[in-house]
Amino acid sequence: MNQDYIKPDNWSIIEEGFDRESVKSSESLFSIGNGAMGQRANFEENYSGETFQGSYIAGIYYPDKTKVGWWKNGYPKYFAKVLNAPNWIGINIEINGEDFDLNSCTEVKNFRRELNMKEGWYHRSFQATLKNGTEVAVDIRRFLSLDIDEVGVINYEITPLNKDAKIIYKPYIDAGVTNEDANWEEKFWEPLDVKKSGNEAFVTAQTFKTHFKVTTFMQNTIWARGEKQNMSPTSVDTIADKILFYYDVIVAKGDKSAIQKIGGYTVSLNHTDTISAAENVIQTALTKGYDQLLQDQIDAWAKIWEMSDITIDGDVKAQQGIRFNIFQLNQTYLGKDSRLNIGPKGFTGEKYGGSTYWDTEAYCIPFYMATKDQQVARNLLTYRYNQLDKAIENAELNLGFKNGAALYPMVTMNGEECHNEWEITHEEIHRNGAIAFAIYNYYRFTGDYSYIPEKGLEVLIGIARFWYQRASFSKNKNQYMILGVTGPNEYENNINNNFYTNYIAKWCIDYAYEQIQKVSLEYPSDHKRIMEKVKLSETELAEWNKVAGNIYFPKSEELGIYLQQDGFLDKDLVPVKDLDRSQRPINQKWSWDRVLRSPYIKQADVLQCFYFFEDHFSKDELERNFDFYESFTVHESSLSPCVHSIQAALLDKMDMAYAFYLRTSRLDLDDYNKEVEEGCHITSMAGTWMSIVEGFGGMRVKGDTLHFSPKIPKEWGGYSFKINFRNQILKIAVDHKETKLSLEGNKELTVYVNGTPVLVQPKN
């Protein structure tokens, strides 16, 4: 743990006291989003201290030209990134002739900010003394509407405490923004139009290259003494990409004044005329009014929490951690649009470009399947189906593969590969397996097979063709090898026969073959359509099976473990416990050469295979591999602790399982990896959910039936969660004495608890 300033609370993230050193971290932690857009917790007013300005719009990206010192054949030409969008939140303020800036105030006291996760709003309050001696109390609430997802709302209140004040509110919208992580420090937005009408303003800009058009809008209302003021701007500043209004207000000592600002974005992804759409959105929001918009927000979040909440008794930090993770997942993606996906930083920062990784299939889909309607998870699968042609093109143009072999990109916005590190882009090919596994996992959990004949089988065939072509035959071993890869442990590059990669390659071919046979028998018209489209012959299928039946898996008979890769035991095997703490994290302390030669593991690798294919191995095998590889794992990936927590619980290592749970659930809140100011780790938050549901709850799907093997950390009095299993809502409540099951719906449901069948009747 590297920070400890967030106050423990069951439903809120709370910071007390103004600390300039934590501003950027808090900007990440207090971020808000609504699935369509997101906003870091930047101050509305000008702040001259260190800050990381960030506003983001789902699906709007820019192809930032790749910057490398030595170009290699096959490098993607660009790294796609979600852009820092035009700033809609800005409200500069002048008080008695002085610009209001917390960084230059002579005193800031009673500073408090709260992210209320239960109701979906962000609040900030404080008292400040300006250099001119004016003391003010400030209270701000901000939220991004779930009901009208193009709208954000700010209520900014100021009360002069020691003298009358002339306050000038200066709300603005500004498209002259840049990205924190731009490769070439170029601008991404081209201004097109600035328009104003009364208290409304519109700045329209489009992205260079990709030509997404965005209208950023604002509407302002001034309040004084509890009454709405019929005010127009006293003056207006306009330039090509920015418009700023001035509202002059005289406020008596002790009286409250406020500006309510409605703002947000309308985008060409959804509208032909973005300005007219913005005008309509403003009118809809004004008709509702601030109070109703806030109540709608509270109601919308109540509905989300009704299904997705996990309760923990007796451990406030654990409770706060899981709710923070669930909250951020729902802020990032709500499943409304199959064109969208889940970036590793969501709407909280720019690292990783905001693009799609294998995290979605490996970690996020289980959360969305179980806490929402199955259509949400199906939309995530459809996202990949819609990009199949690009995956085939990627394999052909960059790797020379043929015949419809598909390599899904490591990083993407539109299906094209846009990751610019060779050892990741072209070697971390195991991501193909996660995409196939997600199709299997979706059917296993939902029972909805229709996706496979409609769309999924084409994806499985493309992936199987890739693995068949990627394997090479070794005369020396008389088996098929997969050489020159990077496994999930990115602290090894260009190694041979990564166990996880080889295993999932075999599984993908076998699973694709099984589904081809099933579809041919049960969906003959779909089978005929697909076979004609992909031109798959029996001869090719036989070749697939030849490879899948003879893939090499590195193993140590002496240790009774599978080897992470051929040369793993040749390393200097010093366990993590003997590594000097001053050398951690090694990715920030060591040269990359030293990291690659070390035995240290960034995240679950062999153990990722045991997680996906648990029923393929014995518990004894898991324990031997877990004990060996855990001793070398430094957990410097956000995706690491959750898998280890799940497997530790299965192995009855409950103290370890609990420690890993706390680490994954509070990874950002406590800033374990010393990088939270760059943004939160959104996709790994789904792994936190899994560590409770699959780890402590022991949930598995076997056949068509839910199984639970509940365990409880000694630190907890009890916990509960809900699962939407095949359109039936099952609630599981666990304490130290018993497990209780309750069911919402019209049909009874049989589940297994510790191997014993339990018939659960629906509640009346």
TrEMBL record:
<feature type="domain" description="Glycoside hydrolase family 65 C-terminal">
    <location>
        <begin position="699"/>
        <end position="759"/>
    </location>
</feature>
<dbReference type="InterPro" id="IPR005195">
    <property type="entry name" value="Glyco_hydro_65_M"/>
</dbReference>
<dbReference type="InterPro" id="IPR017045">
    <property type="entry name" value="Malt_Pase/Glycosyl_Hdrlase"/>
</dbReference>
<dbReference type="InterPro" id="IPR005194">
    <property type="entry name" value="Glyco_hydro_65_C"/>
</dbReference>
<dbReference type="Pfam" id="PF03632">
    <property type="entry name" value="Glyco_hydro_65m"/>
</dbReference>
<feature type="domain" description="Glycoside hydrolase family 65 central catalytic">
    <location>
        <begin position="323"/>
        <end position="690"/>
    </location>
</feature>
<dbReference type="GO" id="GO:0016787">
    <property type="term" value="F:hydrolase activity"/>
</dbReference>
<protein>
    <submittedName>
        <fullName>Glycoside hydrolase family 65 protein</fullName>
    </submittedName>
</protein>
<feature type="domain" description="Glycoside hydrolase family 65 N-terminal">
    <location>
        <begin position="14"/>
        <end position="268"/>
    </location>
</feature>
<dbReference type="Pfam" id="PF03633">
    <property type="entry name" value="Glyco_hydro_65C"/>
</dbReference>
<dbReference type="InterPro" id="IPR005196">
    <property type="entry name" value="Glyco_hydro_65_N"/>
</dbReference>
<comment type="similarity">
    <text>Belongs to the glycosyl hydrolase 65 family.</text>
</comment>
<keyword id="KW-0378">Hydrolase</keyword>
<dbReference type="Pfam" id="PF03636">
    <property type="entry name" value="Glyco_hydro_65N"/>
</dbReference>
